[in-house]
Amino acid sequence: MIEIKNLHKSFGTKKVLNGINLTIPDGVTYCIIGRSGCGKSVLIKNIVGLLEPDEGEVIIDGYNIHNLERKELFKIREKFGFVFQGSALFDSYTVYENVIIGLYERGVRDPKILQSEATRVLTAVGLLPDPEEVGEAAFQNEWKILRDKMPSDLSGGMRKRVGVARALVGKPSYIFYDEPTTGLDPITSEQVDNLIASLAKKLSITSVIITHDLFSVVKIANYVALLEDGNLHFNGEVGQLRHSTDPIVLEFLERYKTKVV
Ligand SMILES: Nc1ncnc2c1ncn2[C@@H]1O[C@H](COP(=O)(O)OP(=O)(O)O)[C@@H](O)[C@H]1O
Ligand SMILES: [Mg+2]
């Protein structure tokens, strides 16, 4: 479980987070929405320990992560997978190298372990077929073709899948997606949304998704928090969003309606 208590963060005189309280129970899909520049990425970076809050606490599975020694923090971080904004693949690395980099950095060198983890996650995201369905020989064939591809050989949707595969390495309990569909065409966006939803179900992983796309929220989230001016103007079940009377929420929903028509 993730518990965020009274989180404050400023940059210079600019207040970005003004006392955020948010609890993310295990196994749910939580969307954090809000307009560009409102502080969504800053919030997520505070949750995973990439930024230090000015005030407040982030408690992951009972541990206050900003009080931890480096070594303990790294241990907690192993519970997290991130899918960064854009795909953030290393252009000069192959698909295989991009996927296993986290394990490699943790000191894993056994090629058997690295390969079996890479094929497991690439199968999970649908870039490799299920070996039980196609047979071992066909599977190995596909794997040989995929492993040495470079990011520039892949479509935007495939790059995103590689980014998700990389986040799943090491079986994290939590996966964070920062604007996973921004910059993708509508069809690819829908595929990515479906992937996020199916992974959440298949792996019972807790998913936290930053987005400004209300279409995605309605389709995949159980809970949603709307951030604006450093505060949460809504925090609750997705179905309750339309009952909100908060003017900021109404404005957001209004814009969404305009987009639908
Ligand atoms: N490391 C930083 N130093 C200074 N300002 C920052 C830093 N990171 C983010 N900001 C500012 O904080 C605000 C929120 O940014 P961000 O969380 O990236 O927005 P978004 O909701 O689009 O993800 C922006 O005004 C941004 O310029
Ligand atoms: Mg952002």
Report on the architecture of this protein.
The protein folds into 2 domains: 1-79 and 172-261, 3-Layer(aba) Sandwich (Rossmann fold); 88-171, Rossmann fold, CATH 3.40.50. It has helices at residues 40-47, 70-77, 95-105, 111-124, 131-134, 136-147, 156-168, 186-203, 214-220, 247-260; strands spanning 2-11, 14-24, 29-33, 55-60, 63-64, 80-83, 174-178, 206-211, 223-228, 231-237. Strand 4 (55-60) and strand 5 form a beta hairpin. It starts with a strand and ends with a helix. The protein has a 6-stranded mixed β-sheet with strand order 6-7-8-3-9-10, with helices on both faces. A 4-stranded antiparallel β-sheet has the order 2-1-4-5, covered by helices on one side. The chain is built from 10 helices and 10 strands. With 261 residues, it is of the alpha/beta class. The longest helix has 18 residues, at 186-203. Helix 3 crosses helix 4 (111-124) and helix 3 packs parallel to helix 7. The mean pLDDT is 93. The structure holds adenosine-5'-diphosphate (ADP) and magnesium ion.
